[in-house]
Structures are given as C-alpha cells and as structure tokens.
Amino acid sequence: MGKVVVVTSGKGGVGKTTSTAAIGAALAQTGLKVALIDFDVGLRNLDLVMGAERRVVFDLVNVTQGAAKLSQALIRDKRVDTLFLLPASQTRDKDALTEEGVAKVIAPLKQKFDYVLCDSPAGIERGAQLAMRFADDAIIVTNPEVSSVRDSDRIIGLLDSKTLKAERGERVSKHILVTRYDPARASRGEMLNIDDVLEILSTPLLGIVPESQAVLRASNLGSPVTLNEPGNPAARAYIEASRRLQGEDVPMVLPTDKRGLLDRLLGRKAA
Amino acid sequence: MTLFDMFKRRGSAPVARERLQLLLAYERKNRNQPDLVALLRDEIMAVISKHVQVEQDDVHIAMDRGETMSTLEIDIQIPNQGAMAIAI
Fold it and tell me: Which residue of A has its CA nearest to B15?
C-alpha cells in the first residue's frame, strides 16, 4: 500500500509544482513507483514542468467521470520509467472534481504505487481541500516571507481538520519544506531564518531549498531540477528531502552563502 | 539613507517574526469561530436600527488588537431627528 502525500501551501507561487516534480523524480530515481497528480483543475502546469505537455490525452477529470481509464490517462516519464503523471483538466468548471471521483482515482493508485504525490492548487477552497483529503503525509511548501508563513499556518489548520485522517481522529504527518531560501539575506537578518519559520509553525522540517537559478532553468527545459542538474544545491536539497520523506535520517545542513569575495563585491548571485 | 540608518537597519526579519507570532496567535485562537468584529457590527446595527434610522455608512467600527488588551471602537453618527426620537 502506497503513501499519499499532498504538496500544499495556501499561497500561490511558492513552489508547489516545482517541488512536486523535483521530489517525485528524486523518489522515482531510487526505483520507487511514483505517481504525480495535478489537482490544479483549470490551471494545469505540472505537465509543463515535467516536460509532458505534448503528451496529455486524458486528464484527472476524464478519469473521475469515467470517460477514460486510469491506465490511459497516466503518462509515463521518458527519463525515469517508474515515474508517472496524471495531468489536471483544463476545464473551467470548478465543480468537475468531486470527493467520490477523487477517491476512485486515489484508491487504485495507492495499490499500484509506492508514492502518490498530489500537487495542490493554491488557496484554501475546494480544490485545495480535495487535494489534501486522502493524504497520509503533507509537504507544506513555505517561503521565508510573512504572507507565505501565515498561509502555511492556515493550511496546517485545514490539514488538522478537513482531511479524512483528521476526521477519523488520526493525524496527517506534516512536514515543512522551505523554498527560495537566501542564506546571505537570512544571515543579514533581512529574511526570516529557518528557526523563525519552524518556531512559528511548530512543524518539523523536511528540507531547505536554497534560491537557485537551476530551478528556473529546469522548468524552462521541462525537466525536474533533480534530474536536470542533480549536483546543484537546490536539487541536492530536494533529493535529501525525498530521503527524509521516506523516514531516513539525513542531517540537515543549512545552505550557506557560497559566493566568493569578488562575486559578493560585484553583487553577483550564486548559481 | 544616512550613515546612521545604515547602522541602525539591523534587518527586518525580527520585525516580521514578531508580527507573525502575534497575528497567528490571534488567528489560531479564533479559527472556526465567527468573525467577532462582523458579529458585533451586525448585532449593534440591529439594536440601533430598532430605535433610530442610521445609514450603514454612519457606523464606524474599529478594532485594535494588542498583546495584552484589545480595543473595540464604535462610532455611530445619529442624525438629529433620530436623536429626538430616542429622547421621546
């Protein structure tokens, strides 16, 4: 029986889709069977970030409504053959997804895959609640910035009340993934540091992904950063996060400002 | 920016942290509870309009949440004929 993991945040643009792709690919590279589901109905993007945008035939809504079989809608990744994607629908009908429909998709995926990663839409409405509904674990993507931290706190509240596990009196296992962390700015006191974020949200940390140009490069190319530039600090952070998600004890290393003196003087950013 | 400012500006993160802690403490406490300000506004309006005709625009309700104490400020402008109606 696989694990259902929701990747959520409340706030938009913090890196949910990027993180879903990066962690999903990192997990699949170790041989685990991984399915990524894009829950952002109407604004699908995981297909684009994964480089599968031209291979979408059927989508999540087609499957929930019985218009397509799950096996027809799942797109196998061309780089890692244990990685699959179930794209969101581009329909504008917000009620296209129902809880029963989602349940019918999640149940067989849980049987066949080791991990089912649900890429949540932004917000706290229906779409976001459906994405987290069947989750065993939650990755809360947070930027070290006030509005993102506040929204993460709201999402944590929903995870503790609106999920199936919560309603059964169980707990969704929650993890904070800090993304776009700028060590230089944090050390200068210009950005909330990791301890601040963790103390405020009182939730354990899954990883710290430093701000990196490799992330945009990867999405430009339609390849998860963990496959595209596995040696890059951001990719390494995602790979380590995926190992922690599996329960491995990987020591957390705070990203440091790796620029040389000349780069600092010229104000150049690290790779 | 003066030279003094440069030294004084010891990062804005501590301010962010304090603001968040205060705000989230309040939001967590009030989660799943009706919005107090909205509730008070509606009930106060109902009471006032039982006796006097007031426009929604003439009612100002402000809330200021402090660490140990909060203030609720209610400012209702009652037209003069209305005031007479109360006196009677």
Answer: A192
**Interchain CB distance below 8 Å, B12 and A189:** yes
Residues A115, A158, A161, A247, CA torsion sign: positive
Cβ within 8 Å, pair B28-A153: yes
Task: Output the average pLDDT for chain A.
Answer: 93
Pairing mode of beta strands B59-65, B70-76: antiparallel
Query: Does the reported pTM lie above 0.90?
Result: no
Q: In this structure, is the dihedral angle defined by the CA atoms of residues A72, A78, A79 and A85, taken in order, positive or negative?
A: negative
Assess contact for A122 and A12: CB atoms under 8 A.
yes
Q: Which residues of A touch B (CB under 8 A)?
A: 145-146, 149-150, 153-154, 157, 161, 186, 188-193, 196, 200
Q: Closest Cα to residue A81, out of A29, A45, A117?
A: A29
- Extended beta strands in chain A, E state: 3-8, 34-38, 75-76, 83-86, 115-119, 137-142, 173-181, 205-210
Inter-CA distances, A84 with A72, A73, A120, A221, B45, Å = 12, 10, 17, 18, 57
CB A116 within 8 Å of CB A2: yes
Nearest to B23 among A150, A190, A191 (CB): A150
Is this complex scored with an ipTM above 0.85? no
3-state secondary structure of A139: strand
